[in-house]
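Most newcomers find our protein records easier to grasp once they have seen one. There is nothing in a record beyond a sequence line and a structure line. Getting from the letters to the tokens is the skill we practise here. An example says more than a description, so a record of this kind follows:
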Amino acid sequence: MRRPQGTLINQLAASTTTTETSTANNNATAQTVIFSADTPHILIDAVLYMGQDKATSQGDEAVRLINVGETTADLSGWVLSDGASNATLPFTTELASGAAMWLAKDGAAFQRQFGYPPALEQEGTIPALPQLLGTWPGYADTGDEVILRNSEGDVVDALVYKAGDVNQVGWAGTAVFPYSVGAERGQILFRKRDWGTGAPIPDTNTAADWAQDPDDPWAGRRAQYPGWQLEPFFFTHWVTPTAVYTLGITPDNGYEMFKAHISAAQDEILIETHTFEHWGIAQDLLSARQRGVSVTILLEGGPPGGMSDQQKYLCQQLEAAEGQCWFMVNDDPADVYDRYTYLHAKFMLVDGQQVLIASENLSPNSLPDDDKSDGTLGRRGTLLATNAAEVVSYVAGIWAADFAPALHHDLRRYDDTFAPPLGYVPITTTGGTTATVRYPAPLLVTAALPLELIHAPENATRPDSGLFGLLAQAGAGDEVLVQQLSERIVWDDGASLRFEAYVAAARRGATVRLLLDGFFDDPTSPTSNHATCIALLAIAQAEGLDVQCQTGNPTGLGIHNKMVLVRVGGRGYVHLGSLNGTETSHKLNRELAIQVQSDEMHAFLAEMFGRDWLYTQHLPLVLGGYVPPAGYLLISELLYDPIGPDADEFIELANPTSLPLDLGGYSLSDATLITDFADLRRFPAGTVLAPSEALVVAQQATAFRASYGFDPDFEVLETDAAVPNLIDDLGWGDPATFLQFGNSGDIIYLRDAQDNAVDVIAYGNRVYPASGVCPLVSASGHSLRRRPFWRDVNDCGRDFEDWPSPDPGLLPD
């Protein structure tokens, strides 16, 4: 009996007893497409239109078909087209239910980029592959129509992208565009997946079916590239193994954990990480090689700032000991494109029996190996090691997918092209004494713990599992603690999913605390941690939410952690690994994180979080009219009319940022133009001003000392050989004069080494249009003082106060 198929139209009409002004919207219809179970249902599942294999004129161009029907489909005589050229599938071509196949222009080019051959090709470059008949459509980079017809010539499915014709039969609405976060070349347009089944979502013949959809923050706003394995890694990995877990904290005990695992290796060490710059770990790996242990490291070939000479040197040493250093590289002239924007995961597999997952690279700044009895210095981070067989085998699967040199030509082994400069001397010392070591030993836990492995780019943004699934459970009485290198307010096409998840948890009643890095952070950037905190606090104040957010640097070299602690229903969860708060991290990088339900681990790390919270840069809870600290050097106090002689004049500068500022070449001047009868004095090379510190320049050091009891940092006129002078720039103004401040008014310029104005103060009868004018002080001996020292609203009258008791070197909050 033939089974019915077609389109069922459901119509709903509504009425009401009240009087309505408009009844036109009281009807609605919905279409349900019904396919017979024995009817093939083939969709265009993915398209690579701008191939990476430029040497073959983008021969890796390809289209993927998928059978979402329940029976095997006979595709003999089906046609792939762009409306002008047609490639016909050969006879006996079949596609099983649930299966997919790639059709490519050039099979060899496709295999070079994807790591495996297509099912069919047009040009016959791989003799064993069946060939498409006719002409490959040649999809345009600027836009086109991808059309699939059955053997009877009917349009079965279509995709329109970019400038293609949106009136194409089988298509409705706007075209699909590549997602802007990733590169366009090599980007695969692909269908969204159902979170529960992994199958394509129901087809509506619109751009909403496709993962590049800019209106869908979860299943959309995505890219995919050759070499990714989205389908086998679509779901996060859940297990509850009974095992031994070792939870470490950097900089306190991270190196010791790595060393212990390396020292215990008997057969094989596999490391996948962003960078490798740690001399001590290199020596530990060399010792392992001497024991006959195989050592292989896979690294990012193009980290931000480039590959360091230290890493090149350490890889050279490892290769000399017959270990292996490999890099995931990008080489556009050779048509080699690394699969991920960055290889950013941080894990180590030992003997196929242990895995260590970390937030830290193999960096001396993260994993100091100094004597910690007197303290240390490093970056805050976390790491977790376990012998759970299910976890080890799964992470080994990620390694196998990433490290397959026979399949992926973006993998290159160390050779002389990676060599360090001749005579390079490696850095061998680490650590310091400024950070107290509070966790000399890691936490050991032996238990059956529910855990989840999450990794990007495949499954890190699932709303139903991983971090987002966990955060979605937090509500009244629960708690979310975040310690993170980077959290953004927005991603490319809207709010950051993480930012929204934290706010949503708070709106459900959860307590939310964010402690973000303040060491690397640029407070002036709209994507900074500082900006994120300001935005969160503003929402919290407006809505009465229990949210606090601060930046900090508890261990001296920044927060590099990627940790989220969640307490839900009295149970503690720990999320750690390499995932930071950026969109690139979640969608384009190789990342790995582990999420564990363990009250003991949660308590251990929550205690660390609480201690670190004390070492923060506090942000105001009352935000009306709040201006964040300036991200540049400021003039903080000026005494232009001392009670006694003008020799007592001074000017004070302040660093309101979280980083040291190099003042070499900076200048102070009362000259607006280079030809003015005025003076410009420069700071000598090597002048550095620490964060939240002041620097004082006096006209004459001896007079200043007599008035204030200590020496200034610099003087303009030489009166004391022990106090350095500012350097008179003879190219500016008149060399016959010197820098002095007018009593009736003046403009004082602070310029950088390129002579760009950094800060300006104008007072009395002089006006600087960009920042207005300060009134003259009310009496001789008063100074103009910036309060607070870190704020700059470019309005002299608001930034500065008339201060009766000049206090050079002291900065008011």
